[in-house]
Amino acid sequence: MLVILVSFAFGFGLALSRIGLPPMVGFLVAGFVYNMAGLAKPVGLELVADLGITLLLFSIGLKLDLRGLIKAEIWVSATAQMLLTTGFMCGVLLLGQKMFPVPLMDMSLQTLVILGFALAFSSTVYAVKVLEEKGDLTAFYGRVAIGILIMQDLFAVLFLSASEGKLPSIWALSVLALPLLRPVLFRLLDMAGRGELFVLCGLFIALGVGAEGFALVGLKPDLGALVVGVLIASHPRASELSKALFSFKELMLVGFFLSIGMKGLPTWEMFIAATLLCLLLPIKTGIYHLIVNQFGLRARTSLFASLSLANYSEFGLIVAAIAVGQGLLSPEWLLVMAMTISLSFAVSAPFSTNAESVYRRTLNWLCRFERGFCHPHDAPIDLGSVRAVVLGMGRIGSGAYDELGKIYGKEICGVEHAPERVDYNRSQGRKVILADACDTEFWLKLRKDINLELVVLAMPNHQGNLYAVKQLRNHNFKCQVAAIARYPEEVEELAAMGVCAAYNMYEQAGSGLVHSALEGCRLDAWREQGTRDGQ
Q1: pLDDT score recorded for residue 255
Q2: Mapping DSSP to helix (H, G, I), strand (E, B) and coil, where does residue 43 land?
Q3: Beta partners for 413?
Q4: Rounded CA separation 252/512 (Å)
Q5: Beta strand 480-485 with 501-504: parallel, antiparallel or unpaired?
């Protein structure tokens, strides 16, 4: 059965990815088809799904800036959105109950409120997956979207505690002492070395310390993984740990998407109900957009953040299961929620993938909703008079900046969209501005008479580098362009677009090592010769 399920997942995932939809939609469809074929669910699938969610939240915690959650654009936006969307969904469900007096809609007012609350959530799994694929987890709009989702997760924990009719144990207060464990966890990461022991160390911290520790004191295990991830996020190897767990997490998440589609056999009545709920997504997205727009976010940022949240959450299944267990809701609603979530992913995927095209088509209309001020992290900045620019100030970009500084002196500038990287590079004496080179507004407001001679594309996302090349050409910048790539096909694609130098970072690392070694040998020989001459 496991082989058949894996085959279904691969087949449908591959088929839907070929038409522009995320593979996760194919996994959901595979789960439905597998279930409709009458095949038995493999033992342990739910455990795999739970592990995927736990590791996902742990990886979010590793990248989370806790100080960002206390910003108004995060906690106020999340709270206002939950209240407005819950009220709207309750009203729609109440109207549907009056218009369609069918057994499926036979619910009490309390149940309507619970369903409205469930439909107000957006999927953390979906949003993180989409943002990871686009390389925008650290972009400003990505951080706003993830921050809102984290706040929603906190609301979910409060709801689950209340719905179970019990409060966490008194030992739950012990989580306040977690910061005392930080030196111990840091020491474990230092001792773990590399390879499989390092991966096991990450799994132990996420599952053993975080998830199981929180479960023992009556708190949500997933929240424990998130909190422990935040706790060790400042460790120098936190990013390395996130990358080490990436493939493992991705595999576990396949089980989660498959499990959603195995909740039962849907009927036409359920499908119609799910379709009608998905028709409400534009209004839900509009609520997100109007709220975050109040904090001075530009039209593009508000739109991109809203499109990342334009779906329903897997948390709706948990809410439905609780209501079914308490006899408030018919079991059919479990399938309705599963279908609604699946359809919402399929509906929102093309808009998230083609967000830039959506923005260009709606630019004039969206600009009407912009406020008279601009958020400081969202304001486009003029590069000024420079001759060389490095887009993307990670490790490769910083190294390129230092080398170019020997040629261009102070007439060089770096562009980076992650505030923490901007602060770090500035502390190292580099001239770096906070801006997003994948932002249409950045290129639209960039001075066209700038004396650019060279642009180095050092962004980690290949699509981002391609986009920057297109913008440079579209705005008639007459300068040389160099770019990094990870795979030979990416080098060929960049070269075909006119990039004068496209370097495979892995291949060039080898040649760079040899170059440095030869230079070192020549230097040693020169010193030895000088010593002999001195004698």
Answers
A1: 83
A2: coil
A3: 389
A4: 37
A5: parallel
